[in-house]
Design goal:
The protein is an alpha/beta fold. The protein contains 16 helices and 13 strands. The strands form three sheets. The chain has a seven-stranded parallel sheet with strand order 3-4-2-5-6-1-9, sandwiched between helices. Strands 11-12-10-13 form a four-stranded parallel sheet, with helices on both faces. Helix 6 links the parallel strand 5 and strand 6. The relative contact order is 0.10.
């Protein structure tokens, strides 16, 4: 059983005070998942069955966290065709990703869920999107809703209404009054625009009193340990390719690069280890990119992301080109120092993609609190 920090205990207490209909908006890394699961554990009778909707790459992380922290098993749902029969009776906790929620919503509503958890709830900021309509149907069927996000507002104040309506439709029943009061209404030739923000102090006060819990790392430093590690399980983009390389290495080489077959036969085990590491690095990239995007979108912290293979580093650099620098063996001398200085000093440059050996030493990282390793043996 995980022992929560004092601020996490306070978060659980506050969620319960709010009737377990709350927006938990703590900064990334402060344990929104754990607080949600502690609420579930303390209120099982009224919160089961529980439905968790999250980004696709986080489904297995939720499954793992549920098992570790509260000793329960969850069912991960996949695909757009829900099966018939008693499938839903196997688990008290069901996990699915936002993209398929619209296909499963009708079946999940029929379960009469006790709790709905919407992780990275900014995914529901578009009030007309099908996934948002599906989430609304699910939340209306449940007495308890927890929306989790370090950045519930990603662009405009108007995007927040949809999330507030999911959590507390009694307080935020209609978009128009909310938009006219808080979203900088402006009448144009084509109609009303809501691209700004007005009365934000009043809105912030209302949210804090009625449904929102938000703490920054700076607010709870006295509770945090000197270092905290967490493992994020991610799926491989093509597990069949990985299993082929693992189980029939020489056949896999022959199919993809026949010229290497003779060399691979002479050093099969050593070559197999190196090649499989590259395969895993490549197949993990979609999930790593999704996780990194969520991190960068969820707050203002900087991240050092370590990798091993040059192809992985190059793809990460390309994917996040407008807000990252690269430090590996190809970046030397003044170019390396310039990259490090830009990362540390430029607020817009929030990601350093580094090769483990090249970027692991020789610079002061005290201003960075988050490090991730996307390739480890």
């Amino acid at each position: 059983m995980t022992v929560p920090y004092p601020y996490q205990k306070e978060g659980v207490r506050r969620i319960e005070e709010l009737g377990i209909r709350a927006l938990l908006a703590d900064e990334q890394g402060l344990g929104k998942t754990l607080q949600s699961l502690l609420v579930l554990q303390r209120n099982k009778e009224q919160c089961l069955p529980t439905i968790v909707s999250c980004p696709a790459h986080l489904k297995w992380n939720w499954e793992r966290e549920i098992k570790i922290h509260i000793g329960m098993r969850a069912e991960v749902l996949e695909g757009t065709r829900p099966p018939r029969g008693g499938f839903f009776q196997r688990r008290d906790i069901l996990i699915l990703n936002h993209e398929i929620l619209k296909f499963w919503a009708e079946h999940l509503v029929a379960l009469e869920p006790g709790l709905v958890i919407l992780d990275e709830c900014q995914a529901f900021s578009n009030r007309t999107a099908q996934r948002t309509k599906a989430a609304k149907a699910l939340c209306r069927a449940s007495p308890h809703v927890l929306a989790l996000s370090g950045t519930p507002i990603t662009n405009r104040t108007a995007e927040l209404w949809s999330i507030l309506n999911l959590v507390r439709p009694d307080l935020y029943p209609a978009f128009w009054p909310f938009a006219m009061h808080f979203c900088g209404p402006k009448k144009t030739f084509w109609g009303w625009e809501f691209k700004g923000g007005t009365n934000l102090n009043i809105l912030h006060q209302d949210l804090n009193q009625t449904l929102m819990i938000r703490r920054l790392k700076a607010d709870v430093l006295q509770d945090l340990p000197a270092k905290r590690r967490s493992i994020v399980p991610v799926p491989l983009a093509d597990r069949e390719e990985y299993e082929e390389a693992r189980d029939d290495y020489l056949g896999w080489i022959k199919k993809r690069n026949p010229a290497r077959l003779g060399r691979a036969e002479r050093a099969e085990q050593l070559g197999k280890i190196g090649d499989i590491r590259q395969v895993i690095g490549r197949l993990k990239l979609p999930a790593v990119c999704s996780w990194t995007k969520d991190f960068l979108d969820d707050g203002e912290s900087k991240l050092v992301l370590f990798a091993y293979h040059r192809k992985v580093i190059s793809e990460l650099e390309e994917r996040f080109a407008n807000r990252c620098v690269r430090v590996d063996g190809s970046v030397t001398g003044r170019k390396r120092q310039h990259a490090v200085d830009k990362f540390l000093r430029d607020k817009r440059t929030r990601l350093l993609v580094g090769q483990i050996r090249a970027a692991g030493t020789g610079w002061n990282a005290r201003r960075v609190s988050d490090f991730a390793f996307c390739e480890l043996d």
